[in-house]
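Form 12-C: Joint structure prediction
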Amino acid sequence: MEGLGKRMNNKKVFFGMGILILSLIVSSHFVDTSLSCSIVTTCPHTDIFHISNETNAHAELNNNSNYDHKICCNDTAGLNIGTSCTGEYYTLLHLSNQTNAHVELNNESSYNEFSVCISSSDGLLNCSYESDCDNSDACLASVSGSTNAHVGNCTDYTTKICCNITAANTPPTIIANVTKPDNVYTNTDWMLNLTVTDPDVGDTITAYTQLYVNRTVSGSEHSLVVSDNVNTNVANLSSSGFNKGATLIAEFWAGDGIANTTKYNTTQATVQNSPPSQVILSYPENNDSFFTNRTPRFNWTAATDADNDALTYQILISLNPDASSPLTNETGISNEYYIQPSELDFATYYWKVRANDSEAYGNWSDIWNFTLIPSVSIILVNDSINFGTMAQFEVNDTTNNHPEPFRLENDGNTEANVSVKSSSLWQSSSAQLNTSYYQFKADNSTETNSFSWIHSQTTWAYMSDVYKSIIAILNHTDSNDLAEIDIRVEVASDEPPGPKSAVLTFYAEES
Amino acid sequence: MKLKPILLIIVMLALASQIYALGIAPSHSDVIFEPGLEKTIQLKVINNDHKDFDAVVYAEGDLAEYITINEPMIKLAKDQDSRIISYKINLPQSLEKQGLHEARIIVREIPKEIKGGTTITANLAVASKLKVMVPYKGKYAEIKLFVTDFKQDKESNFAVEVTNLGTEDILEAKAVIDIYGPLNNKLETITSNKMSVKSKNKEMLIAKWTPKLRPGSYHAVATLIYDELNTKDEKSFTIGTLELEIVSISVTDFRLGGIAKFDILVENNWNTEIPNVFAETTVKDNKEKIYTQFKTASVNIPAFGKQELNAYWDTAKVIPGAYKFDIVLNYLGQKTEKIFDIMVEYDKITATLAGKAIAVEGEERPALLKSIYILIFLVAVLIVFNIAVYFKKIKR
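Section 2 - Result
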């Protein structure tokens, strides 16, 4: 803009081609306002110069008072209009004298002493000699020739003095820059919002942005036309363009087509670690009030991590509904499950899990609960013993595994006591129940120490039709939970021939 | 067509001796007596063996008259893992005796078809106990101690569930937990928080503990002190994990072609003796070809002690090179495995594990090898001699 003022010096600049080009440049860079000029007898605005008559007149400088016809100008937009022949001005005419003068065009040099100038301290004037002024121009006067000429109103002669004024451009100002979000993660885009103002009415404001990731240019320069004084999202950096720990900076500036602001940098943002997602529990099911596994495998679905970090898990198992004061607090679990190493006692348990990415924990899962209850469950490995056809006085038992004894397995989760009773096997009156003709006893299986030997019936006892204790404290751990029940039968001398059968019942309850 | 008799035999065998299973959960239910209490209790009848069967459900015991079984006959299908049944209790206004009253809800399988011959057929019945506790006059509490799998230097908790089975509130209850070692020597005492417990209510006391004790089995005895009375419960627990460690292997006085004796040093980091520890060793090459397998003698390793196991390998047909020495320790139903890379040379075997090399050098090369070297040398001399003779003859 300084150069433009210099070009306006009347000693160096001539009307014609140069001024036309200059005018075009000026008109494209500045905002036209409305210069209004008229010939009046009393000038309430800026008195440019005087003429002796409306037509075919002589001229005088505005500081003379011989003529009543005054060329009076003002700018309706309020720009200052003056008559100084220094600084930013246009020389309209040369006068042969201060008053009663002939005039010549400013590119003539016969009258070098007295000049009529129009100036503005806050606008840019653009004047030219035209055969007809544009609509945007104000016509000040017309002259009869190029030198030694008379002057008149705008309709008097064909050479007219045309001027317009434009306001000087003010570059835009960036009054706010905000990056969002405050904490940047790898799953959130990074955004820059700018608020730009430009006092020049009608200027097109463009915001420019260049994004940098780890101080390296990321993508091409962004430009966006923005509204004056409106907070506008001008650039987004997709989360796919950066990783955890990256530094993000946006360089930004604004322009109005004529001038740009200086370039600024946002505060550097560092992409933070994204904590893992919340864990979803899957097993044991919530509110399961019939849960019987004392060494459960606690399962959950894998958490996700926006940074693709390796995850470990923490599990809390507590007797309190808020999972406080946990009995188990296991961290660093690399699987999506936790196997309870030792048997849980019977109670209601509350548990929750969260994931860890080595920098931060995700949110705790919901708290789930299950109620571990004792169960007695017996497996009868073989449900019948067939001694085949037996003769009178014949004795047989299962101690030699011919036939096989009954085998009982405790499939529950607590120790069990087992009793036995039976219906009568024999028809003989001397061989009814509670006699030596039908007896039982407990024995070790291949899984020794499966029950309390001293508290169990390990010697032959008479079978009865009321329950008799046979096994005490039958263990429930898989490696030692199997017992044998031997049966001994003897055929009485008076037992009639025919098939014999009895129904025996093993009754189990917790110890 | 030949398959038919086989299938028939299989079916007959299957029918001849079948597995039967029956379970019930919970195997007991606790109720604190209240006059006229009405309550429905659910039971789960477990059909572990997935069979079709019918069963009767009935109550026995001194409270049987207050129990109504909702379904006295039940049917379970083979596709049912379990079935929920229920019974109602309708307690009287009073029970004369304080303390525990019991009833049993019995689920009994209906007997199956009886087979021929002299046959005894078994069926199953299981019971769930109903335990009704009539509160004692005055103050009376029972406790249940919960332990966990502790880890050395990591804080965890003992929990003591206090049930007030007295007619009066307990103003202040706290648990003192004594920790005993394997020799029944008291090692530590910790104390829980204090709480009041209202009559017929339960509260949970917590005692935080960071074990400084070495890994092993321990015993905790909790004593609840409440309003100048006390009661106890006890549980065993562990600190850390029982696992034997193979500290090193070494081979002494080795000569290729002879018997290599591997000394496997095993450490017990547990506070009790580990009995009957033995190792199964396998020597393989890189193509998994097995050269030898050996089972060591069993040893008992004292608490926090070390013991050596010896494995042997006849190297008569072994050529020098790299092999793998796989050791599987067996103890208390557990296994610990470690694989060593071994380098067999003429006079030493070097074992490598986790960046450490264990090497034992022999004093001399084996006599057999020495003989081979001498023979090779003599053959070479003879060849040279013969060539020289041959050229002399040509010159002549």
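Section 3 - Comments
Confidence is low (pLDDT under 50) at residues 1-31 of chain A. DSSP finds two helices and 38 strands in chain A.
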